[in-house]
């Protein structure tokens, strides 16, 4: 069993990006600038946004964090997005999800300028991805592809089963694994909460990508020997014996499934760190595109 070490791989990517930024600085060019917008004070979201800002500093990017109260109206948020769209100093920005219930998430994502949408959630970017055109790939699927590529995991002709159909991970992953090229060229089955006899499907899979958000859902008996396991799940499970009062758990029963897998991602330290690294990579791409187009 080989551990797909997202923490180490993300570190390698950050080193590569830092080298690119240093070249830009040496040439007197503007360095990439990422803005993050957060509405409200959800603990997990604040931690996540904070780590994105820290990552920017680490690689030499400019970063801006915009905090808005949870009472912010949809109109106020859309006005702020318009300002970011028009600000030439900012190359890319993200709106941290989830948003408070008075705000229509879809309307917000639609309002982001596609050329600054480094999360890859805008329908224009999602459509381009589906058509194999150059675009921003959502950071988590992008990170999974990068892990498979850097570890040389064979995907051609393989049967990939994706568990979960969210717009952020499951659906894009099902499209990307079936595309021409590497990683890709696999036969994809997309499963979800209404799929019957899911274990019959997963036991035939060469590659399983689980993005369900149900702790320890994928058990050893649902996996065949030698399967590649990508665990996207990340759930805080209460645990009084720990200092924080919780443990981070993935979708996969790691202890037992890892004994059968050929490759597996740990949680934490697998897909999570890759997501932030690929957000940085998308921001670098956004800066490059703006430089070419201006």
UniProtKB/TrEMBL annotation:
Keyword Flavoprotein among UniProt keywords: no
Pfam families per UniProt: THF_DHG_CYH, THF_DHG_CYH_C
Function: Catalyzes the oxidation of 5,10-methylenetetrahydrofolate to 5,10-methenyltetrahydrofolate and then the hydrolysis of 5,10-methenyltetrahydrofolate to 10-formyltetrahydrofolate.
Domain Tetrahydrofolate dehydrogenase/cyclohydrolase catalytic: 4-119
Family indicated by similarity: Belongs to the tetrahydrofolate dehydrogenase/cyclohydrolase family.
Alphabetical GO biological process terms: L-histidine biosynthetic process; methionine biosynthetic process; purine nucleotide biosynthetic process; tetrahydrofolate interconversion
Record-annotated Tetrahydrofolate dehydrogenase/cyclohydrolase NAD(P)-binding domain positions: 138-289
UniProt cross-references to InterPro entries, sorted A to Z: Aminoacid_DH-like_N_sf (IPR046346), NAD(P)-bd_dom_sf (IPR036291), THF_DH/CycHdrlase (IPR000672), THF_DH/CycHdrlase_cat_dom (IPR020630), THF_DH/CycHdrlase_CS (IPR020867), THF_DH/CycHdrlase_NAD-bd_dom (IPR020631)
Pathway given in the UniProt record: One-carbon metabolism; tetrahydrofolate interconversion
Catalytic function, reaction form: (6R)-5,10-methenyltetrahydrofolate + H2O = (6R)-10-formyltetrahydrofolate + H(+); (6R)-5,10-methylene-5,6,7,8-tetrahydrofolate + NADP(+) = (6R)-5,10-methenyltetrahydrofolate + NADPH
Binding site for NADP(+): 164-166, 234
Keywords of the record: Amino-acid biosynthesis, Histidine biosynthesis, Hydrolase, Methionine biosynthesis, Multifunctional enzyme, NADP, One-carbon metabolism, Oxidoreductase, Purine biosynthesis
Stored CDD domains: NAD_bind_m-THF_DH_Cyclohyd (cd01080)
Name of this protein: Bifunctional protein FolD
Known partners and oligomeric status: Homodimer.
EC assignment: 1.5.1.5, 3.5.4.9
């Amino acid at each position: 069993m080989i551990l797909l070490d997202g923490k180490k791989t993300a570190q390698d990517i950050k080193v590569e990006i830092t080298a690119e930024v240093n070249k830009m600085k040496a040439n007197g060019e503007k360095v990439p600038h990422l803005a993050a917008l957060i509405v409200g004070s959800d603990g997990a979201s604040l931690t996540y946004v904070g780590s994105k800002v820290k990552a920017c500093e680490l690689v030499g990017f400019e970063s801006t964090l915009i905090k808005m109260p949870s009472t912010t109206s949809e109109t106020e948020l859309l006005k702020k997005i318009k300002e970011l769209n028009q600000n030439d100093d900012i190359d890319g920005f993200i709106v941290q999800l989830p948003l408070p219930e008075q705000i229509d998430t879809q309307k917000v994502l639609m309002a982001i300028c596609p050329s600054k949408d480094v999360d890859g959630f805008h329908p224009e970017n999602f459509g381009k991805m589906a058509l194999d055109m150059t675009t921003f790939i959502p950071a988590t699927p992008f990170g999974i592809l990068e892990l498979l590529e850097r570890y040389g995991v064979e995907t051609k002709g393989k049967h990939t089963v994706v568990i979960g159909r969210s717009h952020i991970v499951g659906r894009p992953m099902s499209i990307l694994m079936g595309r021409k090229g590497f990683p890709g060229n696999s036969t994809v089955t997309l499963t979800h909460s209404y799929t019957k006899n899911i274990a019959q499907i997963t036991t035939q899979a060469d590659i399983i990508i689980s993005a369900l958000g149900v702790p320890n859902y994928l058990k050893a008996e649902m996996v065949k020997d030698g399967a590649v396991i990508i665990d996207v799940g990340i759930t805080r499970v209460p645990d009084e014996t720990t200092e924080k009062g919780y443990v981070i758990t993935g979708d996969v029963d790691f202890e037992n499934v890892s004994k059968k897998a050929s490759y597996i991602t740990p949680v934490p330290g697998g897909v999570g760190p890759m997501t932030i690294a690929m957000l940085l990579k998308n921001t670098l791409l956004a800066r490059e595109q703006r430089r070419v187009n201006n």
